[in-house]
Amino acid sequence: MIADLHRQIYERDTELKAIFDDQQRLRENMKSLKGTAEEKALTQRYTQQLNEQENRLEVLRKEKEQLEAKKDALRRN
Known about the structure:
By secondary structure, the chain is an all-alpha fold. The chain has two helices and no strands.
C-alpha cells in the first residue's frame, strides 16, 4: 500500500515538473513576441494554456497532499 502511494506521489511530481517546464517555455515565447496581430493571437493561446495548466497544478497539488497524508497515516499505524 505505501509503495503504491509512493508511485502515485511520484507520478504527481513528474506531471508537476513537466507543467512547470512547459510554463517556462511558454513565458519565454511570450517575451519574444512583438505585438503583431499573429503574435497577439499566440499570446492569447499561450495565456489560455497557462491558465489551464494552473488549474491542473492546483488539482495535482491537492491530490499530492492527500496522498502524503494517507502515506503518513499508514506509517503511523
